[in-house]
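Write out the 3D structure for:
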Amino acid sequence: MTIECPSPRHEDEVVLLGHGAGGRLTAELLDRLVLPSLDGTPGPLEDAALLPGYRELVISTDSFVVSPLFFPGGDIGSLAVHGTINDLAMRGAWPIALSVSLIIEEGLPLAELHAVVASLGKAARSAGVPVVTGDTKVVGRGAADRLFVNTTGVGQRHGALHPSAALARPGDAVLLSGPIGLHGTTVLSTRERLGFESDIVSDSRPLHRLVEALAHVAPDVHALRDPTRGGLAAALNEIARDSRVAVEIDESAVPVPEAVASACDLLGLDPLTVANEGCLVAFVSAPVAEEALAAMRSLPEGARAVRIGEVAARGPAGRVTLRTRVGARRIMDMPLGEQLPRIC
């Protein structure tokens, strides 16, 4: 007699915080439930999509539920603008318009709402992108957590700059535009009153000008990704998976600020999986790597850009390997779920 294990009863399952973390649980939710329901076609999941029929126009949408609303270096308003601009930039696009929707919980002080909206407007003006449409909804007490923001952005690509998570190639250099871990540790420290916020400030900022600086080496810029949820580990694994390549990273080359390292040691976190909001990873042809680094370092947001690794000529497709400081090698896995909920 053959005994078979019962199939999982998906109808009894529930959504977890980890399903929104940008790691393996998010991928499973999209692959199993969301994309099939929307007739999604197989392929790389990019930060932004090309508009059908308008090949140089790019669109991206995002929702922001960060808690607390205000933190050193930013707030939910400026973060919403920066995050959407950066998603467009990762497809090589300059932002041309934004929409903003606010979901407000009854009881939110008008002074706080004004501070968020004023910051959002200031961030948009500073980035040179207009907010052209939007919506406002108010829900009852307890039906939301103070304020959620949804933004959609439309952008236009820079000439021959057409990066994709599926275009990394063997031999590519892997570049990182700046230190990692600042946003996630800042938000967590502020939320939990850990005391690190006096030493750490979120790196939230727009990156479209940094991407524009790479336009002169456009054909050699193969993939761009801003390592937000899931941090650098998630971003590298996504590109390795979608490009079907093996990636090797030098741990000693990855810039981790001392305050971030201390906070992560205390909390048991890996800085490689902590969210960022103001840096990017670039996969570029090795011969132009130094030229690309010089272009990035010419701007404040890329002043500390470094080369952190390369795409291996051979190796298991989709694998990211970390060369540790002691000379060993370990696999850098895709984060499973949520280490830091409500981070963006």
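The first strand starts at residue 49 and ends at 51.
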